[in-house]
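Aim 2 progress update. The chain analyzed this quarter is reproduced below.
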Amino acid sequence: MSQAAARSSTPSAYRLVVRDIVTPVTIVTFVVSTVTGVMLLLHWNAGLVRFSHEWLSLGFSAVAIWHLVKNWRAFTGYLRRNLPLAAFGVATAASLLITGMTGTSSQASPGQVFGALSRASLEAAAPAFGVTPEVAIARLAAAGIQAAAPDTLAAIGNRAGRSGADIATLLAQVGQNP
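Predicted structure tokens:
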């Protein structure tokens, strides 16, 4: 085999980068984005994965856009056929519909909500958990925490060596006696 033939059968450095680096990065960021997206949907360790989901999704999006640009001719070929064109249209409409139905303009974070609850008196906060102040006091007493109706959740938590958010979490737990 001649040197020219050997060189032409050897992939270029560019192709090696695409095949050996970009493809695995795309696969990993897609899998991580999918798994963390499902975790966020199910509210499982959402605070833990939200940051990584958002940033890795941006990385995945950047690689996907790069891939689209590199394969633009093939992509535009899809748009000349009815079935792929219909699939793009349906997927776009469904995405917009779901975003419109589930999107919210609320800027309140869970931290702000817990902060507001922590500053509220037990008397005012108890109905938010579907209980009376008396039931809330009994739930906390069952957990070894002393409380009175006029006390704030933060004050109750401070006395017990916990945070107001911990007290709110205890009150939110269902299936406890009483």
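The chain has two domains: 3-100, 110-172. The mean pLDDT is 82. These observations will guide the mutagenesis experiments scheduled for the next reporting period.
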